[in-house]
Amino acid sequence: MPTDEFAFVPFLPSPAGAGPNREFRPHHKYGPAARRLRQRPGAWAVIRTAPSSAVARNRASAIRRGEIPAFLPAGDFEATHRQVNGEWRVYARFVGGGFK
User: Fold this and answer.
1) Which tens digit of pLDDT belongs to each residue from 32-81?
2) Range 69-86 burial, b when 16+ CB lie within 10 A, else e
């Protein structure tokens, strides 16, 4: 395809070296959690557990920045991570829609 052509694609191809079956998929698994948080503004909930502090921190940051579609628009959710009984947890709460 010439570089000046525009076209929608059904998925993003796998990055080089990513291995098979690694096309882009939206984070649909977070949709139910985000909906439940919107129903209870200000209430914190455990969104997921993580194998390490770095993974938990990165996921919390992605929630805050709206990088996960379920948590759009950016800034409508607060998120943080904590270690509880040796387990890393990601917490989030809805603060959009005029609630703070």
Assistant:
1) 899 999 999 999 999 999 999 999 999 999 999 999 989 999 999 999 99
2) ebbeeeebbbbbbeeeee
